[in-house]
Specification:
This protein is mainly alpha-helical. It is about 70% helix and about 0% strand.
Length: about 190
């Protein structure tokens, strides 16, 4: 992993927000921001506002907390960036791809569910699952999943595949609509 990735470790909560999009880390990042701003205001803008000992205590407490978060986040960073590579579970994506190409839709769906349990934002696995949904006739679920994939930032490199799957899905929806009777007022010949 590159050293520049560790820059997100220097602000508590930022790595989880940046690499995983976890909004649960937002309160930590905001609280740290407020504490830093409060210390700066109390120290330099209004030095008599809060007793100097409390400002020093807050500074040293904040610094210790910062180092704690830096160490913890630096340890967790590889699993935040590449959870499938650092997981203890075996990577089931190659097996899922083989099952998909063999037309074993149920097996492929189960394996893809295992892959997505480790990495829920994995574009290849999500695209393959969209194909499984399309092949099994769950077109609404496939459309919904495809919309969710296109919203992911990590899926930007997969735009061509997303567009291709979207066209396949549109053809499947249109083919499904062609099978339904379009004119119900015309009586059937006896």
């Amino acid at each position: 992993m590159e050293a520049k990735h560790y820059a997100t470790c220097f602000w508590p909560g930022l790595a989880e927000l940046w690499w995983r999009g976890r909004l649960s880390a937002l309160p930590t990042a905001l609280a740290f921001t407020l504490v830093v701003n409060l210390i700066l205001v109390a120290r330099y803008l209004y030095p008599g506002w809060i007793h100097g000992g409390l400002v020093s205590l807050a500074f040293w407490g904040g610094l210790i907390t910062l180092f704690f978060y830096i160490i913890r986040t630096a340890r967790e960073l590889p699993s935040l960036i590449n959870p499938r590579e650092t997981s203890q579970e075996p990577d089931r994506f190659p097996d899922a791809r083989i099952a998909y190409l063999s037309g074993q839709w149920e097996e492929a769906e189960g394996l893809l569910t295992d892959v997505l349990a480790i990495e829920p934002r994995d574009p290849p696995a999500l695209l393959l699952l969209t194909g499984v949904y399309r092949h099994t006739g769950r077109l609404e679920a496939a459309e919904l999943l495809l919309r969710e994939i296109s919203r992911l930032e990590v899926a930007d490199a997969w735009l061509l595949e997303i567009e291709t799957e979207s066209k396949r899905l549109t053809r499947a929806v249109n083919a499904g609509n062609d099978l339904e009777p379009t004119d119900t007022k015309t009586p059937c010949p006896a």
